[in-house]
């Protein structure tokens, strides 16, 4: 008679374990289940699928329809690069970068900043300075851009192609 309570306990434990396994299996996406978009497919494995967006193309409905449907991350194409964000020393312009940020976040997408420093697309005024003045200009530029986008962007490409393309 003493064996029955043990059997019930074992069966109860096995049943609970089985329910837990079935519950866990229900949470794992079926590898054969096709996601409806590329972004959704990436999200199934905790990844993102992104694209570069040009602010000048946000009025193109085919472009924005595909971007909004297929991607879950957006990177500004050129609008957050040094020449676009600080065309004159100490004078920042975030209008195009903000346009991309707003478009993406209104659609539930994350935004990646691109880029704080790069050998190309530098503002022309950087070419006239060197040494400690250039270093300070870069520090000021990075601080200005980072302050503007603080807490907004998911990731940053800080330096792009630092040595060779």
């Amino acid at each position: 008679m003493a064996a029955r309570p043990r059997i019930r306990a074992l069966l109860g434990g096995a049943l609970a374990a089985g329910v837990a396994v079935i519950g866990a299996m229900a949470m794992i996406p079926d590898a054969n289940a096709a996601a409806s978009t590329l972004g959704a497919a990436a999200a199934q494995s905790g990844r993102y699928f992104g694209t570069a967006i040009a602010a000048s193309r946000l009025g193109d409905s085919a472009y924005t329809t595909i971007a909004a449907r297929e991607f879950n991350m957006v990177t500004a194409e050129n609008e957050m690069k040094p020449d676009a964000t600080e065309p004159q020393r100490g004078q920042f312009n975030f209008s195009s970068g903000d346009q991309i940020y707003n478009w993406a976040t209104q659609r539930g997408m994350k935004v990646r900043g691109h880029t704080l420093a790069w050998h190309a697309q530098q503002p022309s005024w950087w070419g006239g300075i060197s040494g400690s003045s250039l270093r300070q200009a870069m520090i000021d530029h990075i601080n200005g851009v980072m302050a503007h986008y603080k807490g907004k962007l998911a990731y940053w490409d800080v330096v792009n192609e630092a040595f060779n393309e």
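The helical segments are 3-27, 38-43, 61-70, 82-85, 95-105, 131-149. The beta strands are 50-53, 73-76, 110-118, 155-160.
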